[in-house]
Each structure stands twice: as C-alpha cells, then as structure tokens.
Amino acid sequence: MPVMTVPAANHRTPIVGMLVALLPGPDRKRSPRQYRYRMLYRHTDPREPGCAMVWEVIGGREPYQVTLERLPNSKYRWHCSCADAVYQGDRKPGHTCKHIRGIQACLPTLELSDERPPG
C-alpha cells in the first residue's frame, strides 16, 4: 500500500498532515482507489484521555471522519463515521472498516483496547 506524508508548507500555521493510501474503492469491483487522510485535530497532550486525533477521509462516495480516542488505561480505540463501521461494528466484535485499516497501516503501532464503545 503506497503511502506518503505531506506536511504543511507554512510552519507558522498549525502543522497539518496528509496521508495517502490505496484502498478498495466504493464500486462493485472494489477497484483500487486513492484515499486521502487529512488531519483536522491533534491533542497537544498525548497522555490525556479523550480525543487524540481527528482525520477527514476523502476518496470514496462521501467524506468520512476517523477519530482516535485515548482511553484512561492508556490504550486507544478507533472510530469511523462510515456506514460499515457504524452497522457492522455493532454486530461483529473486532470488525474494522477499510478507512481505519488504511490509517492504521500508515501510523505507528498503538496499543488498542478490546472494549466496544457504549451504545
């Protein structure tokens, strides 16, 4: 999976990164398509529980948001706003959508939690 990181050009503005990943597309043939992950938010204290990062995902039928939540036990949990993550994630424990798998392949390994989100 080809990946590149593009840092922001102006260093006086907050650093915004972009990741690019080749993932199965939204068509029936699942033709490979370029998905772009643009960082919208990154918490300044990496040790504090709560929202650690928010990414906008563009390249499919609709834009989605992928978030990384830091839990009080110092583990992490991913969330995605796509229909696959919302509907399949509730029915199949351990299910991960392609948007989350794509960004996980680009970022360093994090200790993830097996806990399911409430609700």
Would you mind describing this structure in some detail?
The chain is of the alpha+beta class and 119 residues long. The protein has one domain. Helix content is 15%, strand content 34%. It has a 6-stranded antiparallel β-sheet, with helices on one face. The protein is globular. The N and C termini lie far apart (34 Å).
Feature tags:
119 residues; alpha+beta; six-stranded antiparallel sheet; 2 helices; disordered N terminus; E3 ubiquitin-protein ligase dtx4 isoform x2; zinc ion binding; Znf_SWIM; zinc-finger
SSE topology sketch:
Layout: E1 4-5, E2 18-24, E3 32-42, E4 50-58, E5 64-70, E6 76-80, H1 83-91, H2 98-106
Antiparallel strand pairs: 1-2, 2-3, 3-4, 4-5, 5-6
State mean pLDDT (0 to 100 scale).
79
Order of helices and strands: EEEEEEHH
Beta-strand portion reads: 25-35%
Please state how the strands of the largest beta sheet are arranged side by side: 1-2-3-4-5-6
Tell me the number of structural domains. 1
- How can the largest sheet be summarized? 6 strands, antiparallel
Q: How many β-strand stretches?
A: 6
Point out poorly predicted stretches. Answer: 1-15
Briefly note the structural class of the backbone: alpha+beta
Number of helices: 2
What is the CA-atom radius of gyration, in angstroms? 15 Å
Give a concise summary.
The protein has 2 helices and 6 strands, in the order E-E-E-E-E-E-H-H. By secondary structure, it is an alpha+beta fold. One of its GO terms (molecular function) is zinc ion binding.
